[in-house]
Amino acid sequence: MKLVKTFGRGKAAADALIESLERRGAANTARVEPVVRRILAAVRKGGDRALLKYAAELDGLRKGQPLLVSREEMKAAWNSTAPALQAAMMVARGNILAFAEAQLPRDWTISPVDGVRTGQIVRPLGSVGCYVPGGRYPLPSTLLMTVIPSQVAGVERIVVCSPKPAKETMAAAWLAGVTEFYRVGGAQAIAAMAYGTVTIEQVDKIVGPGNLYVTAAKVLVSSECGIDMPAGPTEIVVTSEAGDAAGIAADLVAQAEHDPETLAVLVTSKEALAKRVATEVKLRARDNEIARQSLAARGCIFVTSSVREAQELTNRLAPEHLSVDSEADLKWIRNAGSVFVGEYTPQSMGDYVSGPNHVLPTGRFGRIRGGLSVMDLVKVITVQQYTKAGLKKMGPHAVVLAEAEGLKGHAESVRVRVR
């Protein structure tokens, strides 16, 4: 990992690096956009024929192998799963379910004045496509993180797409009760869910993380199909003044092993801590090839001139995962996907069993939203109702505003009811 001081002789280089990190989302997906556009266009035009071609070429789909994973396959995968893993999945499912239920918005009504009632009703999306990566590692946890909140929301049709689904992922699908699961991934899966084919019917919204190709595809289809957010290659920032160097390094290596594109950053005003963490990271990544690649390419330790500067830099980076020293740090955090507080809260717990979702915003989208939640899977529809007395009381104010805007028809639509 590079050690960069944000002050003194290193300031200019640090400023340039920080500015490049602030542009990271758009810059990364731009690299793969031409290829993604071709795949999206081909699937949109060719439907199943193009989808099967890409599934064979890029996902390893065997000739004659069906796209649809049967419930029998899922059940067999669950039955052959070790009891300890079954138990872990059930614990994760329970915590994700409880967290999503707590997040679920409710119907409510208020009466601001007599004769007027306003409120909201909550309705689920009709269909959701859950993307579950399956390239380097099986990710049954992502299946649970995307499917369970959809179920809590009440989504009627839940589709899962995953390339070369591993036994563990199919076992998680059985546990979650998935009925529509396709062995296809990448931009081609996003295209199928967004545009629809004969085999895979179009969905209302696509959720879930993925590599640069998946992230670029989600962004490109978002004008026609809802998406949760760009949830691309993993990002971790640890902002610490008094943390344990071994624990910090372990978290950096853990997230770095996801993908060679992982962004891994430590921000501190303590140079001694920075050096200890750098040493620990080197030791802990020694036998982890992917972590070594990402840490060499995109690993960085910023040493700032003050604690305040460290906090400001963290908010500028708006990371997917953020670890801090104590609960007091929550006061200054403005931008992050998910926050992990204290020495005994490794980020890996959030990846698996804590309950909060691990599908989180990357590429600085932590500036404008948090992670996937049940609220992404429902529509909050506002409702209003007037009695004649209520309209007589409030209507004149609406008439004045309508006339101020020159919208005579708006004003008349009120007047005609209260004459």
From TrEMBL:
<feature type="binding site">
    <location>
        <position position="258"/>
    </location>
    <ligand>
        <name>Zn(2+)</name>
    </ligand>
</feature>
<comment type="function">
    <text>Catalyzes the sequential NAD-dependent oxidations of L-histidinol to L-histidinaldehyde and then to L-histidine.</text>
</comment>
<keyword id="KW-0862">Zinc</keyword>
<dbReference type="GO" id="GO:0004399">
    <property type="term" value="F:histidinol dehydrogenase activity"/>
</dbReference>
<dbReference type="GO" id="GO:0000105">
    <property type="term" value="P:L-histidine biosynthetic process"/>
</dbReference>
<feature type="active site" description="Proton acceptor">
    <location>
        <position position="321"/>
    </location>
</feature>
<dbReference type="GO" id="GO:0051287">
    <property type="term" value="F:NAD binding"/>
</dbReference>
<dbReference type="InterPro" id="IPR022695">
    <property type="entry name" value="Histidinol_DH_monofunct"/>
</dbReference>
<comment type="pathway">
    <text>Amino-acid biosynthesis; L-histidine biosynthesis; L-histidine from 5-phospho-alpha-D-ribose 1-diphosphate: step 9/9.</text>
</comment>
<keyword id="KW-0520">NAD</keyword>
<keyword id="KW-0368">Histidine biosynthesis</keyword>
<feature type="binding site">
    <location>
        <position position="410"/>
    </location>
    <ligand>
        <name>Zn(2+)</name>
    </ligand>
</feature>
<feature type="binding site">
    <location>
        <position position="234"/>
    </location>
    <ligand>
        <name>substrate</name>
    </ligand>
</feature>
<comment type="similarity">
    <text>Belongs to the histidinol dehydrogenase family.</text>
</comment>
<feature type="active site" description="Proton acceptor">
    <location>
        <position position="320"/>
    </location>
</feature>
<feature type="binding site">
    <location>
        <position position="255"/>
    </location>
    <ligand>
        <name>substrate</name>
    </ligand>
</feature>
<feature type="binding site">
    <location>
        <position position="211"/>
    </location>
    <ligand>
        <name>NAD(+)</name>
    </ligand>
</feature>
<feature type="binding site">
    <location>
        <position position="321"/>
    </location>
    <ligand>
        <name>substrate</name>
    </ligand>
</feature>
<dbReference type="GO" id="GO:0008270">
    <property type="term" value="F:zinc ion binding"/>
</dbReference>
<feature type="binding site">
    <location>
        <position position="255"/>
    </location>
    <ligand>
        <name>Zn(2+)</name>
    </ligand>
</feature>
<feature type="binding site">
    <location>
        <position position="131"/>
    </location>
    <ligand>
        <name>NAD(+)</name>
    </ligand>
</feature>
<protein>
    <recommendedName>
        <fullName>Histidinol dehydrogenase</fullName>
        <ecNumber>1.1.1.23</ecNumber>
    </recommendedName>
</protein>
<feature type="binding site">
    <location>
        <position position="410"/>
    </location>
    <ligand>
        <name>substrate</name>
    </ligand>
</feature>
<dbReference type="InterPro" id="IPR012131">
    <property type="entry name" value="Hstdl_DH"/>
</dbReference>
<feature type="binding site">
    <location>
        <position position="351"/>
    </location>
    <ligand>
        <name>Zn(2+)</name>
    </ligand>
</feature>
<dbReference type="InterPro" id="IPR016161">
    <property type="entry name" value="Ald_DH/histidinol_DH"/>
</dbReference>
<dbReference type="GO" id="GO:0005737">
    <property type="term" value="C:cytoplasm"/>
</dbReference>
<feature type="binding site">
    <location>
        <position position="258"/>
    </location>
    <ligand>
        <name>substrate</name>
    </ligand>
</feature>
<feature type="binding site">
    <location>
        <position position="188"/>
    </location>
    <ligand>
        <name>NAD(+)</name>
    </ligand>
</feature>
<feature type="binding site">
    <location>
        <position position="405"/>
    </location>
    <ligand>
        <name>substrate</name>
    </ligand>
</feature>
<keyword id="KW-0028">Amino-acid biosynthesis</keyword>
<keyword id="KW-0560">Oxidoreductase</keyword>
<feature type="binding site">
    <location>
        <position position="351"/>
    </location>
    <ligand>
        <name>substrate</name>
    </ligand>
</feature>
<dbReference type="Pfam" id="PF00815">
    <property type="entry name" value="Histidinol_dh"/>
</dbReference>
<keyword id="KW-0479">Metal-binding</keyword>
